[in-house]
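Q: What would this chain look like folded?
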Amino acid sequence: MFGELIDKFDEIFKNLRGAGKLTEKNIKDALKEVRRALLEADVNYKVVRDFIKHAETEAVGERVLKSIEPGQQIVKIVHDELVRLLGEKMVPLAPIDKAPTVYVLCGLQGSGKTTLCGKLALQAKRKNKKPLLVAADIYRPAAIKQLMILGDSIGVEVFHLDNAKPPEICSQAKKYAEKNFIDLMICDTAGRLHIDDELMVELEEIKARVAPDELILVADAMTGQDAVNLAEKFHQRLGLTGVALSKLDGDARGGAAISIRAVTGCPIKLASIGEKLSDLEPFHPDRMASRILGMGDIVSLVEKAQQSVDLKEAAKLEEKLRRQAFTLEDFYEQMQQIKKMGPLESILGMIPGMGKALKGVQIDENGMKRVEAMIQSMTLEERRNPHIIDGSRKKRIALGSGNSVQNLNLLLKQFSAMQKMIKNVNKFKLKGLPKGAFPFQM
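A: My prediction, written as structure tokens:
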């Protein structure tokens, strides 16, 4: 997401860094390029006009003209304006503090509503809450079946009724939730390929019957300006409490994400960043602005690590590293921890400057799978003592993992180099440090 916009902003700011100081001319030239980049990214033209006006007012001034780092000054101004457009502060979902708290999801067909229902249910379950999924989409073929499969995969109950209209289904589901001590009720409503009055009337009746704590529009970030128009119409009719942007992991230009908040005044609360049910995060305007400007997102990276890394296992690993006892078994466990954090490309993109460094580089996710397969094909003794792997063992491991002996040799060579590196780190960095002072994560 935002790939083209990030590249264009980087080019604009690079040209400014070569200037000795900021002048009204190079400010206007730079903002003209920013305007063009935003319009090409499918940002609403009224939003762009307002953005440039505010940015120019901030940039043209005595304090800025004397800046010794003009490029950085413009980056800060553009960053602050992006944060303002995206909503300034993160707006959380309504707390699950009464039984049942009700979330209703709406949107067009194919926007990702059903999947988002599963993601929200999983989040609630991880917080030790009892969620209930409600199948209120009776029109799309297999919609109810899809929701039931999602619910079964995460161990969450799905409520559905045969021969009933969606408002009645939601109403009965709320009564069921009240009797069965459900903490969170999530309603998956029907979508259409286009907005029609019948859809809106149905949603209005659902809202009247269940009085949702959250009425969330699921907007496909890849639909560009259509997503903005959609959000505006839904908000006018229903009074949305928030927007969830889906498919933010795609290659969309990103204009919808920047425009929705400014056009509708409705906060973006959620960002769906992948296909897995765990790929859902709160929408932070400041962090998203940093990503758009290619500045990374260390805070989100740290949060992902905290959620994924087992601290007890990390402490054990640190002790092994100190004793230089790091094995292929430990390496495999670390790979599993990294996988929990999401796609490797997404993780690396959160590191400042890494996105630019990786430009044009293909991240081979299959490479990790090949390494996993080779380690899984080893015996426990071989994982703990790779030096015992001779020619016959190599043939067996390669055959069992569907790899070549050459690939296995490369893995063993790289692991040996890693062990030498750890030995050097211990020698030069850890010597004399108190326990816990140098937590090393592979």
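The domain at 303-430 is CATH 1.10.260.30 (434 Repressor (Amino-terminal Domain)).
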